[in-house]
Structure formats: structure tokens, C-alpha cells
Amino acid sequence: TNPAFKEVLSRIESHQDCRNLPMFSFLILPMQRVTRLPLLMDTICQKTPKDSEKYENCKQALKEVSKVRSQVIPVYFQGKMDVFSNLAGLQSDFLALQPFPLVSSSRWLVKRGELTAYVEDTGLFSKRTSKQQVYFFLFNDVLIITKKK
């Protein structure tokens, strides 16, 4: 409610070091990392040979990281955090979309995937149709179509 705070926040968010990201995207980063740690540890455990002594250490680390995650993020908050975590991750992938902020409390990802787009190229004497692979992100309020790198 403080107009001076809003002005300073707006100035900070528009600074080039912040890449026009809203304050929320910086607040969500620690939570995003905590939610991804068990996934990372699980992948490491899957890649570690089961007969190795490191495997037991890995399983113990996965157990501890999962415990920390469950202590940090209450169950009732989990669904909302996953949505924001996914959006924040996508936002960092699409820095070129800059004044378009993906992270929003009223936006969620509905579907994403790869599609084949048929592009019509009309030249002076010819008409040609070509295929192009595109990747799409369908949110509840916007559709983003990109080329996959």
C-alpha cells in the first residue's frame, strides 16, 4: 500500500541486472531449488551402481533432502509452489520475451509439447509449403509458440 515502496520496487524490477523479472521470481528461487533437489538426488541414485558403497550414501542423502523439502514446504502449499516453480523455470528459459512476465498468481500451464507447423512460402513464380517443428506452451490465458533450440 506504500506508494514509495511500489515506486522503488518498480525501479528495481526494471533494472537490467534483474532482466525485467518481477520480485516474485526472485522470492521463488530458493523454493524452486528445494523442490528440485530430491529429483536431482533421485537421478544420481539411479545412475549409481547398486552394489557400490556410494549407493547407500546416495539413498541416505535422498532421504534427508526429501525430509528437508517436506519441512520447508507445507503440504497445503505444495500445488501452488509447483505451478510457480514451473513458471519460474519457463521464465528463465524465455528471457527474450522480456516485457512479458510468465510468472503470475493467476496463470498456470495447461499443456506443452511439440507440433509440426505447415508454413506456406509464396514466391514470385511458385508456392511452396514446408514443415517446421515448433514447441508450444498453452497457459490458461496465453499460447506461446517457439522454435526448439
UniProtKB/TrEMBL annotation:
Lineage: superkingdom: Eukaryota
GO MF term list: guanyl-nucleotide exchange factor activity
Pfam families: RhoGEF
InterPro entries xrefs: DBL_dom_sf, DH_dom, Ephexin-like, PH-like_dom_sf
DH domain boundaries: 1-75
PROSITE patterns per the UniProt record, alphabetical: DH_2 (PS50010)
Protein name from the UniProt record: ARHGQ factor
Source species of the chain: Cettia cetti
Gene: Arhgef26
